[in-house]
Each structure stands twice: as C-alpha cells, then as structure tokens.
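Following up on my earlier thread - several people asked me to post the actual chain instead of describing it. Fair enough. Here it is, all 465 residues.
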Amino acid sequence: MHENIPANIREIFSKIKNSGYEIYLVGGSVRDLLLKRTITDWDFTTNATPDQILEIFPEAFYDNQFGTVGIPLEDPQTSQKFVMEVTTFRTENGYSDNRHPENVQWGKSLQEDVTRRDFTINALALDITKDEIIDLVNGREDLKNRIIRTVGNPDERFKEDALRLIRAIRFATQLGFQIEEHTLLSIKNDANLLQNISQERIRDELLKIIGSEYPYEGLLLLKNTGLLEYILPELLEGKDISMVRPGRHHTTDVFEHNLLALRYCPSKDPIVRLASLIHDIAKPRVRGEDENGLVIFHNHELVGARMAGDIADRLRLSKKQKEKIVNLVRWHMFTVDENITDAAVRRFIRRIGVENVKDIIDVRIADRLGSGTKTAESWRLIEFKKRIEEQLSPSPFSIKDLAIDGNDIMNELNLPPGKKIGDILQKLFEEVDEDLSKNTREYLLKRIKDEEYEQTSLSNDKIPH
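Reply from S.P.:
Thanks for posting it. Predicted structure:
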C-alpha cells in the first residue's frame, strides 16, 4: 500500500517518525486504501503532542482543543492547496450534549486512541514504514464481510456522539455495507438523540446519503430506524396516501413514490436528487377528490415549493441551493406539448433558468420512473428536449441579450434615465421573443423611432410578462 500514498503525505510521516515519535495513518484513509477507493482525507495519529508537532512543522496551525494540528500542503499534480491533519493520541469522556467530549486527555498508546473511534472499519491504523495494518478492533474482518459495527458498545458510542447514528447509515450507503444487528438496534433505540445535533451536521450527512450509490436504501434505513422523523418528517406524511388512479402509472403511496424518484434520478447532484425526493411532498396536505370520487392533488407543486423552502431553511442550505430546490419542485409539473410555440419554449427556459434546464428534465425522468413507467422518457419529452436545445443557443433570455441597450434608447430619443427606458426595453424584448429575427441593432433602432411604437411604449399599459 506504501506506493499508493502520495510522496508529500509520506514525507509528513517520515519527519514525525524520524523525530522519535510513533505515528500511524488512521481512519477512513486506511479503510479506503484497503477498499481501493479514492482518498480525499489523509489523517495521522501520533503520540507527539500538538506543541511537539508544531516544532517539527513551523508552518502548521493548531486552533482547537482536540489535539488536531493542520499542516498545509499542495497537491503536486493539481497545485490545489489542502490541509493534512495530525492528531495526538487521546482519550475522551463526558458527552452531556451527545456530541462533544467535555474532557480530552492525551493518550499514551494507539490502543487508547482507536477504541474511542466510531466504527471498526474506521479504527484501522497503518504503519507506513512497515506497510503493516494494525487492527485492534477486528475492523479488517468487518471490512471483508462488508459490515458496519461500532467499536465496543453501540449504545455508548451513540450517546457519546449522536451524529454517529446517521453516519452509520451514510457509510452503509456509500460503501454498500450492512449494519450489524446490535448496532442497528441501538440506532433505533437512540434515534431521538439526533435532536441534539445541529441541522448543519445533519444536512451534510443527509446530502452524502442522497448522493451515494444507494440513496433509496439509505432513506429506507433512515425511515426504519426512526431517524427520518427527525430529519424529513414531511416525507412520512406520504405513508399510505395512495396515488393509484385508473389509467395512470402510479402504483404506490406517496412516500414510496418519492423514494423511488430519488432512486431513479439520473443526476448525481445531491441537491437535484433532494428535489426529486421531495417533489411530491405536498400531496398528502392537498389530497382531495374530483367529481367522480377519484383522488386528486390540486396545486401540490405550489404548496410543495413552499414546503421545499421551509425544508431548505431548516437544513441550513445556501441561498443558491434553496432557490434551485424550490424552483425544481415548483415547476416539475411542466406541460410537454408537441404544439408548443418556440416563444413558449423560451419562456419555459427563462422561468426555470438556463442553468436548471437539465436538472428539471432529470426531476421529470425521476418522477416518471418513480411512478412505475418502464421508459425514462416519453416521445413528447424527447421532442421537448430537442426543442429546448434548438432554442438555447440563439435565443435572448433577458433584456440584456437585446442587440441594443438603454443608452441607445436615451441617445436616439433624447430621453433621460428612468422608468420609460425600461418600459421600452421590455416592449422590445417581448416583440423579439416572438420573432428572433428582429433582434438586430438596425431593426431595433428603427423600431424605437416609430411614432406609434414610441407612444405605446411610453404608455402606462404594460403587457404582463
């Protein structure tokens, strides 16, 4: 395995080792070396104290109470800067908030350090000089058998740090592993402890589950362990709310449909996948019946958009992420009509946003496959995608794409800056949107000088856009 470790990482190891201290590669990096997975985080543990590490690496920094020193490095291939962490052996106790230890002491042995860790597969250590795995908790056997198991008593591990409840499921979905029986039972028993964890940390783990190879299985695990109640309780409202209607594809309840939409979402983007997961989240709240007694979900996309915004706020998503999810949920019911005009296609693109076009198509495919259809795309959706592609390149999607701007209008009509300039630009844009050939500087300059056009442009009657 030595040859699979970058030279600058081996250099850190050698400097500490040559200074007379014990040092081991530990945790997820060792696990991923054995699984031959891509490694993004390299972590070392050592008996050197933070002050001693800083003596060896003057450029390093230490700004926490957990013994973790950050050493700035640069990837020789990409020139990207990153931080490599070296943590002193430590023991911990006193977790009154189910997250942070109240007492941290420097440990004297690797044994003390690994037995405080979360799962056996994350408690393996590697002596790089000997290319030797040190396994003090039977982690290699669990790795071989594809098992997620806590180090020691699972109830104690989860009460120490309740984030481990959702991390167990995250590792299972990322690696395709099973959660060991006693560990799984403790997750169920301790699920309520997740209330003590910040939404930011829950969000990070949830997005990793959603972005994993097995997101459907991950959400089922969250539901079956009781964790989903503390993460996305709105999803559970869809249990036993049937979507079955004569002549329709739907064959499940709302809850299962949402999970299947997640499973079949073509996008790898966790935010788009999250939108697929919650696209029909409002259906239980708007459920009704039509004049024939058949179930309907009137305006569920409108109510769903508001709910999506609330979920985004609760999970502390960024403004940009929130806007994307709300937009995708709001417009996932877009009409696909082979008779739609080019101008209507452009209005659709503007409404959803050029950057979200592919994402809304992915949500539609997820919705379709999650409803029980056998094909990802109907012939109408295929044709609609072609129409979108045709309109993306040549089309103006906002006033700024016009061949003239406000300065041209002020110069040609001798007008001061103000609302009238915007009104004229809006009218020009609406005209060009119906006929793209008119978006030339020559035509638009001639048009604004037209007396009839100027009068209507400057009137108070505006065409809604």
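Residues 2-139 form a domain with the Beta Polymerase; domain 2 fold (CATH 3.30.460.10). That should answer part of your original question.
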